[in-house]
Write a sequence for this structure.
């Protein structure tokens, strides 16, 4: 059994998912080809409308990738050079890269050890007269504490951009009982449709989402060369489009997004139950106010055993990944920040290990993965 399971275990199994959904996806792609409506075809609008309805956002503005979405969001806010953006250093580089590209200043603050998301007290401490934006990343599929973040933003008159590249479909419940989707709580949200994301296309793709129509129109204009009327350009923009074939794939996959989340949660529950008794492992904590869509299932391995466990799993044909091995403030590109101390972020970079997580994990595979992990600790 172990031989078979080992052969087929992937960190993300896009091949098996595609086989399961192949017929409608192929048809949708063929339709775009038959219509030769490769750029800005009707399917792009259709998908955007469907996604807007799914997450209950007034507007969804499609674009070329999740990094562009972040850049467009920042450009839409009319910030000026040197303005400060408070964000997490425990994230993918894209989050901070666009800040620097626009001449703005990333201010990295620490995260919570239990849910990996930005720490509220640390945000408040970092606010200065130059602060303009709080940019939480809903890491691994669970929302940051948006109620606290929105309260801080209101108190200090700041914008909030949600990076929900990993959390599309997650919901946050406020203390008044109302629930909102990731990406729709701040002024503007951004997401990525990179193939391995929870809603992934067959290439690059991304989107912004907002309930602020003026801001949404501005973002759409920026994504389209700063133009509202063709060949008339009012502001400096970029060229960032979601192409029609990607929209067609996404439009089919969106119908399954809830099911994808359910499947990921099932795998997570299996891991939780099987691994909870291992003293040297900490399974991912659920934050009461947010649902979790498990973009990643991330363990914390204590006593410096993370790399040894990863190597052991590799030797048994089980992929596991470290997201992220080097926090952003320790990256060469941010060498001027190397003396900043973010102890929790730095500890997490040493301890975290993400297990295979996708929509196609079988009980056989999960059992093999967990048995192998137990074998390591015995
Ligand atoms: C994937 C990702 C991005 C960037 O998305 P791309 O589509 O690859 O540009 C940004 N932020 C986070 C947190 C991500 O995981």
């Amino acid at each position: 059994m172990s031989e078979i399971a080992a052969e087929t275990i992937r960190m993300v199994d896009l091949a098996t998912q595609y086989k399961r959904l192949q017929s409608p996806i192929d048809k949708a792609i063929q339709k775009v080809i038959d219509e030769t409506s490769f750029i800005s075809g009707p399917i792009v609008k259709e998908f955007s409308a469907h996604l807007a309805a799914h997450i209950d956002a007034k507007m969804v503005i499609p674009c070329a990738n999740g990094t562009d979405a972040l850049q467009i969001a920042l450009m839409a806010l009319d910030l000026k050079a040197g303005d400060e953006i408070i964000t997490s250093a425990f994230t993918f580089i894209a989050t901070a890269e666009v800040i620097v590209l626009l001449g703005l200043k990333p201010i990295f603050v620490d995260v919570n050890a239990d849910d990996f998301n930005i720490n509220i007290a640390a945000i408040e401490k970092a606010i200065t007269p130059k602060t303009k934006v709080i940019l939480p990343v809903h890491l691994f599929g669970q929302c940051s504490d948006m109620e606290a973040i929105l309260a801080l933003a209101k108190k200090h008159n700041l914008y909030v951009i949600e990076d929900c590249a990993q959390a599309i479909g997650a919901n946050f419940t406020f203390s008044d009982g109302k629930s909102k989707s990731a990406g729709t709580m701040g002024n503007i949200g951004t997401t990525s449709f990179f193939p391995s994301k929870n809603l992934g296309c067959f290439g690059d793709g991304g989107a912004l989402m907002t309930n602020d129509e003026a801001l949404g129109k501005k973002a759409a204009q920026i994504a389209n060369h700063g133009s509202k009327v063709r060949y008339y350009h009012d502001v400096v923009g970029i060229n960032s489009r979601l192409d029609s074939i990607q929209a067609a794939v996404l439009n089919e996959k969106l119908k399954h997004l809830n099911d994808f989340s359910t499947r990921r949660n099932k795998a997570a529950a299996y891991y939780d139950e099987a691994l909870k008794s291992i003293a040297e492992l900490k399974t991912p904590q659920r934050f009461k106010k947010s649902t979790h869509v498990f973009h990643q299932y991330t363990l914390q391995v204590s006593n410096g055993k993370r790399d040894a466990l990863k190597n052991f799993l590799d030797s048994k044909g089980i992929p596991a990944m470290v997201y992220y091995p080097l926090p952003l403030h320790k990256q060469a590109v941010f060498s001027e920040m190397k003396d900043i101390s973010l102890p929790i972020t730095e500890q997490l970079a040493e301890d975290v290990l993400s297990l295979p997580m996708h929509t196609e994990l079988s009980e056989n595979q999960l059992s093999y993965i967990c048995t192998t992990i137990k074998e390591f600790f015995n």
About this structure: The first strand starts at residue 59 and ends at 63. The chain has two domains: 2-13+256-377, 18-254.
